[in-house]
Structure prediction request, 182 residues.
Amino acid sequence: MLPNANKMTDAYSIVAAASFAAERHRHQRRKDDAATPYINHPLIVAQFLSMAEVADIDVLVAALLHDTVEDTETTIDEIAEHFGQRVAALVAEVTDDRTLPKAERKRVEVERVAGKSAGARLIKVADKIANLRDIADHPPQWDAARTAAYRQFAADMIARARGLNATLDAMADAELQRAGLA
Ligand code: ZN
Prediction:
């Protein structure tokens, strides 16, 4: 069932976004041994933000939807239609620029993050906390070099995106420490 933009109470928006993301990611799995359903990832990203007392509903909704455009057939226009322009703009900000060659994408993403909106930066920090935590708790089948490279990328992203929420930054520091990066 697609969300109705005319019914957007805060509770409706959050539940609708979780449900929409679950539907879009339904055939996707994380790359860990347990092949965890993909939806666990956006749910924990949104939960980290709410644990850090981020109360901006559009940011929480965008966190739930943050990988739908990058990793599924969902378009920014669809997000705008169902969740409004601000949520769509936030999701666009946290979606990789696919016009760039793949090798450059991560570096450019790190370079650009400091110039993004506060909401987008909060989502980026929570996303990287979640991924570092997953690598530590449920290691993907990566070799050591790939794991080290991803951890360094996450550390670089956090370094440039942080500074907006002390609780979230402390959560990031704890994961960086666990990864041997702080
Ligand atoms: Zn993500």
Summary: Residues 118-137 form the longest helix (20 residues). The CA atoms of residues 145 and 151 lie 10 Å apart. The chain has one domain: 5-178. The mean pLDDT is 94.
